[in-house]
């Protein structure tokens, strides 16, 4: 999927399906996108390699309420636990573009834009050699496809691959949907994986950059709320 297609589809989607961050409360999901578990599966070397779909959740309520404090008794939906628990709900993420703070790694055929603050610690970037090293040397179709795969499976969109010659973005073709990442390797629940250009609106009514894939915090511990920064990996 190239950049123009991503933007066109995202603009259309944002009018019907979007997420509102409630101040001191849950995520309000409008438009009834499908919500499914996405369970990380590993390759023969024990590295993150793909996702397997798990349980489907009912998203027919409009809006439905997804927990973001990490303490719900009705996972993944809000049970009101945030009302009785102390937690920091402050949104600290910038409204800027992903690329404003991204480091660029350039290779013979590809350019990798890496915005580290968006790391959701899913570890697909290590699957067959670290993506930064792959990009710096990738020339063959096999090497290019591997780099595209590792970047495209990054749920937080930290990693974005460009065709160096054409300047086009390589992006997976996602339908508007929500994935609830489960990480058996770390034995934790990961972030809420937002796919297909779903708009996210902060508590003040401003929209974050609309992107093909982002990861929202659902443990309540991220220092880059509402986005995941991998805090669940160390907090359990």
Would you kindly provide a written description of the structure presented here, covering whatever features stand out?
This protein is an alpha+beta fold. It has one domain. The chain contains four helices and 13 strands. It has helices spanning about 5-15, 130-135, 140-150, 230-235; strands at about 20, 25-30, 35-40, 50-55, 65, 105, 110-115, 160-165, 170, 175-185, 190-195, 200, 215. It has a five-stranded mixed beta sheet, with no helix packed on it. A four-stranded mixed beta sheet has the order 5-2-1-12. It has a four-stranded antiparallel beta sheet with strand order 6-7-8-9. A hairpin with a 5-residue loop joins β1 and β2. α2 (about 130-135) packs antiparallel against α3 (about 140-150). The model has no long low-confidence stretch (mean pLDDT about 95).
Summarize the structure.
Helix content is about 15%, strand content about 30%. With about 240 residues, the protein is an alpha+beta fold. The strands form three sheets. It has a five-stranded mixed beta sheet with strand order 4-3-10-11-13, with no helix packed on it. It has a four-stranded mixed beta sheet with strand order 5-2-1-12.
Q: What's the structural blueprint in terms of helices and strands?
A:
Blueprint: H1 3-14, E1 18-21, E2 27-30, E3 35-42, E4 48-57, E5 64-66, E6 103-106, E7 110-114, H2 131-137, H3 141-152, E8 159-163, E9 169-170, E10 177-183, E11 188-195, E12 199-201, E13 213-216, H4 231-235
Parallel strand pairs: 1-12, 3-10
Antiparallel strand pairs: 1-2, 2-5, 3-4, 6-7, 7-8, 8-9, 10-11, 11-13
Helix pairs in contact: 2-3
